[in-house]
Amino acid sequence: MPSYCPPPEQRRISLVDSLERTATPGSTEIFEREAETAIRSRLASRFHTSRIRNYKLINSLWNLLKIEPNWNSYGTPPPNIESVARATRILDVLANSGLSPEKVSASAEGGVAIIFTGVNRNRAIIESLNNNEFFLLLYDLEGRSKTIELADYGAERVIHSNLLSHLEGTSLAS
Amino acid sequence: MPLKEIEVDVNIPFAADERLYRRVSPGGLNNAGEFLPSALNTFSFDKDLDSAPSVMRGAFCDWNDVLAFDCADQELVGWMVYYVTVGELPQSLTAADGRVFAFFPVHRPKPLCGAHSVIASYVALDETRKYVPPPRPVRNALRTILATTLKLATQP
After folding, report:
1. Which residues numbered 26-65 in B keep a CB inside 8 Å of some CB on A?
2. Domain annotation covers residue A34
3. Whether the predicted interface score ipTM is above 0.95
4. How many independent structural domains does chain A possess?
5. Reduced to 3 DSSP states, what percent helix, strand and coil does chain B have, rounded to the nearest 5?
């Protein structure tokens, strides 16, 4: 004989309850303070600022394609798309490694240059040229220099290991 | 007004204290105002002597002639002029293969720019001074030495 068993009584969800204002003036103030702290922390984040800076550098890099031939009055051609694309890949890698270039500019050799300023008198430039030459130039203000020629494959590792120690102050004379 | 080709004598030798001028746009400096090696071209070493790195010799020009239209082929606003003396050019630079390169200025006037000169390179001990393009590390060493030696000639 079938029997009937009623389902257990459930609490009904009230639409009115969900719209009930739960915030108090005190809790609103705490929320706003927390939100402001979060926004400030995001803006001050090294990762975040480095990302924004990298975006601006890549933008500047691609704008170099628009410069006129003989832009330096010594007959240098504007950068070509290959040199800019190669430099863009390097900027992407640098953004993840915490190495921040000072600026990008056209190279008088025909191509683009990524400029770094290190501690003391150490400086560095990565040049990606129209003729496919690709190298890291480590130098100091005493005129000493070291050129590391780069290949497309594995350039990131070579740049990172050599550039970081140089910019942190390792002497080229050592 | 720059001297013209017909107004200069290319047989006058360069003096050690003679200035070699080079113009640069603000983009050729870093944020600290230091001359960047990447603002110096040596790509033309691949071609011929006439297109080697250009300078203007001080015996036949003033620093402001370097910015004149006849020498720059364009109007330049906000550019600066730097100089290095002949005696400050590197004596020699050694390549990885052991070849030693020397550098010297050569006076190559242009019709409207009589002071135009170039910095040529040759393998040292070659008495013929035949022009030889140096390898990349030597070019960069030259660019670095020049960039860190060049001094501002423009008046503030």
Report:
1. 27-28, 30-32, 34, 36-44, 51, 53-54
2. yes
3. no
4. 1
5. 30, 25, 45
